[in-house]
Amino acid sequence: MTARRARIRPWFAPWFTPWFTPWFTPWFTPWFTPWFAPWFAPWFAPWFAPWFAPWFAPWFTPWFTPRFAPWFAVDA
Q: Is the predicted pLDDT of residue 67 greater than 60, yes or no?
C-alpha cells in the first residue's frame, strides 16, 4: 500500500465473514435473548435510559395517562 494508492483498510471485515458469524448469530435469536437479557440489561440500560427517558416519561405520569388513554385504546 503506497501513498498514491492509499485506502482505508477494512479491519472489521473478518467479523462479517462466515467464519465468525456462527459465534454472533445465537445472541440475536428469540430463544437466546430472553435468557440473557436480565444479565445484559444492567449494562445497556444506563446507556439507553437517558436517551429514551425524556420521551417515555410523560406517558406514565398520572396527569398524562388518563387524558390520552381513550385515544390509544384499541378495541379487539
A: yes
What are the CA-CA distances from residue 75 to residues 26, 65, 66, 70, 72 (Å)?
37, 18, 17, 11, 10
Which are the contacts of 36, defined by CB distance < 8 A and separation ≥ 6? Answer: 27
Distances (CA, A) of 58 to 1, 68, 74: 55, 11, 20
pLDDT digits (tens, 9 = 90+) for 23-63: 555 555 565 555 656 665 666 566 666 666 666 666 666 66
Spatial distance between the Cα atoms of 42 and 45, rounded to a whole number of angstroms: 6
Listed by start position, the domains of the chain span 45-76
Q: State how far the Cα of 70 lies from the Cα of 64, in Å rounded to an integer.
A: 11
